[in-house]
Amino acid sequence: xxxxxxxxxxxxxxxxxxxxxxxxxxxxxxxxxxxxxxxxxxxxxxxxxxxxxxxxxxxxxxxxxxxxxxxxxxxxxxxxxxxxxxxxxxxxxxxxxxxxxxxxxxxxxxxxxxxxxxxxxxxxxxxxxxxxxxxxxxxxxxxxxxxxxxxxxxxxxxxxxxxxxxxxxxxxxxxxxxxxxxxxxxxxxxxxxxxxxxxxxxxxxxxxxxxxxxxxxxxxxxxxxxxxxxxxxxxxxxxxxxxxxxxxxxxxxxxxxxxxxxxxxxxxxxxxxxxxxxxxxxxxxxxxxxxxxxxxxxxxxxxxxxxxxxxxxxxxxxxxxxxxxxxxxxxxxxxxxxxxxxxxxxxxxxxxxxxxxxxxxxxxxxxxxxxxxxxxxxxxxxxxxxxxxxxxxxxx
Amino acid sequence: xxxxxxxxxxxxxxxxxxxxxxxxxxxxxxxxxxxxxxxxxxxxxxxxxxxxxxxxxxxxxxxxxxxxxxxxxxxxxxxxxxxxxxxxxxxxxxxxxxxxxxxxxxxxxxxxxxxxxxxxxxxxxxxxxxxxxxxxxxxxxxxxxxxxxxxxxxxx
Lengths: 396, 156
What we know:
The complex is a heterodimer of chains A (about 400) and B (about 160). With about 400 residues, chain A is mainly beta. Chain A has helices at about 1-15, 150, 185-190, 325; strands spanning about 25-40, 55-65, 70-80, 85-95, 105-115, 155-165, 170-180, 195-210, 215-230, 245-255, 260-275, 285-300, 305-315, 340-350, 355-365, 385-395.
């Protein structure tokens, strides 16, 4: 409630500032509506019929207190079917401090406190801002929709240091905090049968990026460590028990820009540790990995095409998922342990601030569907499935 | 598929692209699609690139790297602590495109992407966008800490 109050105050204070460039307040926003159709998958809906649940609306404001201090916030309304919980969110709201600490043009420092978005991965911070993405749906190996709310933003402290060295520009980023998890998000992440409280103890992230001088290349390395806790609701006949989970991830990032060509790639290795929760004595500790390479080619200033390969294996010691049917008495097929995806897309920049985007996805495996711990082979009966989407977007 | 294979492919690709990027940014291979459209908002060429103008007398020299990060939104203060106010022409202006390609050695869509990220992440004020070079000159002259660009003949 407090975050919503902060956000409303920001927007009220900024309401007369739209498009006045030198004003102390800025208001920006976006709205996008699309349609999506899947075959043989519950990724977006259970019926596999054409769905219009591809709505993303956001409004943000930034209020400049002085040359060093600012307040910023954004509210969003998201409805993207089964991908993550529908509804409004305070996406971020924070105090931004960017002092001039160094008597040197080669250094810059910034600190943020509040609900701050993850700025450690290439597309994490703007994954809900449609016109900043290259496709309607991001590569799921890295940007798993089921983790959207816990991976995207949290109540945290974030620091950033930029250094212009003789060899190129370095960016160092650090953040520490925790994401609130409501019951809808619990159901998506854990199980719809859960009645207890799922919470995140902390998420700790660091990253370093380097852009060599005289090139349009940027490379980066990031790490993440996060702990979760599940408190069972014994009085509410919760089928689960108290438990904990740890998620750790190491990622490499790379981007290259040319006049008509843009390449980006990210690869990651992650560790998931689960204790109890499903039943007393349950224990699991496994490493998964994945990544993507994508290419955007600008045909002209208005049209561009996108191609991407995205690979994901949930367990690097069982890439084909042969153990899963054995462990579940044949209930869960092997294709719930991986998800490989080929994507082709097209972007049409219709006019200033208007864009149409469409993607076709060919997918093998269902390893990135929610809920994670309870795969549904009835709604996802095939190893191979397809998805098509189109989205019209406007921003200001 | 083993992610190690993917990693090796990416590293190889990055090396190839580094070589390509280095070659592409040598003076003889500068982007050449910038066109002149008239005296008022005329794009510059490689021998007469757009000139930087600024309203901040205490900063003696601007490196290409600093300039690039200022117009990318990463560096937001002058060394004396004064806030930098970036002023740009509209994105379809030939002079704007020439400035980005010839002075920043970047591409217009790349710079736009960086600003979009900052704006929708709440991390910075967007640049002031002006309609023509007269407005550019006036805005920079009247805004302490401002930085912009003009054609070489007008900047003098």
